[in-house]
Design goal:
The chain is an alpha/beta fold. The protein has a 7-stranded mixed β-sheet. Strand 1, helix 8 and strand 2 form a beta-alpha-beta unit.
Length: 318
């Protein structure tokens, strides 16, 4: 822009009329004060050094403060909210205590996805456990989501109420909630819960679908070996494991299986202190099809090679 303006000025051009489209566009991005000074410089024949000085002193980098939005970092690519938003599609949420996660999920997805939200309890038990549950149920229904009660996460493939296949199946903080004090027995019981859930989920997952399982970090949760359990499930493969960015789901409060009351904090201290991790498993049905296709292509190429060997170019087989 500096060079063009200096050139136009020396030729005696008259302001904006002599500028190219590109130079006009660049000039239009400058503050009005700088525009006026540069146009006057054109008329009076100022040189490139003068034009450059005007731009440096009055350009947008000095006259405009960055907006609050531009200063905010983008959400990390390796975070649960980003992965869920990218996958979405037809979504099934299981074990959603007071349904606060599903409400936050609807807000995150901003439409374009079909959400079915479920919990293990009956509506009556749910209302007795969590005094904020009914409000969340109402919000979900108003937002177009389906809400189902008494859904066992370990039997999702067997239940007629669920209309699979699903593109995303989400289970946050699974726990048997039986109050087992012996740690080894507690670990085994929760591993069994996760194993049965993943096995059943794999049967109603779309070919490109993913299962999201979030657990707390630290012990005894690390000893659950969620990744190892998932890898052993036929039809699933571990895609990745990412941090669960709780702040991306405003209003979501993890509720313990036993319920919520005045004696229990609204936020789980374990999550605040240690964080949580989301394990993402994908369906292997697409991979199997691709492997089959690759095998078919290899077989076809081998056949062609054999035929070419016994039927050289120009000859015909009989």
């Amino acid at each position: 822009l500096v060079k063009v303006m200096a050139k136009r000025g020396k030729k005696g051009g008259k302001g904006m009329k002599m500028l190219s489209k590109g130079a006009k566009k660049a000039l239009g991005k400058l503050p009005k004060k700088a525009q006026e000074m540069l146009v006057q410089g054109l008329k009076s024949g100022h040189n490139a050094a003068w034009s450059k000085n005007v731009i440096l002193k009055n350009g947008p980098q000095n006259s405009q403060k960055p907006s609050a939005k531009s200063q905010q970092p983008n959400p990390p690519l390796q975070a649960a909210s980003t992965q869920i938003r990218k996958q979405a599609g037809k979504v099934l949420v299981v074990g959603d205590g007071n349904f606060s996660f599903s409400v936050a999920l609807l807000e995150l997805l901003q439409g374009g996805s079909s959400v079915t939200s479920t919990c293990y309890d009956s509506l009556e038990v749910l209302q007795n456990k969590y005094d904020d549950a009914q409000g969340h149920v109402d919000k979900l229904r108003e937002g177009g989501a389906s809400v189902l009660f008494q859904i066992d996460a370990t039997r999702v493939a067997e239940l007629p109420e669920l209309d699979g296949p699903y593109d995303s199946i989400i289970f946050n903080f699974p726990h048997v909630g039986l109050g087992i004090k012996e740690q080894d027995d507690n670990i085994a019981a929760n591993q069994d819960l996760i194993r049965k859930f993943l096995d059943s989920s794999s049967k109603i997952l779309s070919p490109t679908g993913k299962v999201f399982v979030t657990i707390k970090k630290g012990e005894p949760y690390d000893s659950w070996k969620v990744a190892r359990i998932g890898i052993a499930i036929s039809g699933l493969q571990l895609k990745t494991a990412v941090d669960f960015d709780h702040a991306a789901f405003p209003g979501y409060s993890h509720r313990r299986t036993a319920g919520f009351g005045p004696s229990m904090p609204s936020e789980d201290p374990d999550i605040i202190r240690n964080g949580a991790k989301t394990f993402i498993f994908s369906s292997t049905s697409k991979s199997k099809k691709e492997d089959s296709d690759d095998e078919g292509k290899a077989k076809k190429n081998k056949t062609k090679s054999t035929l070419k060997k016994f039927n050289p170019k120009g000859s015909r087989g009989k």
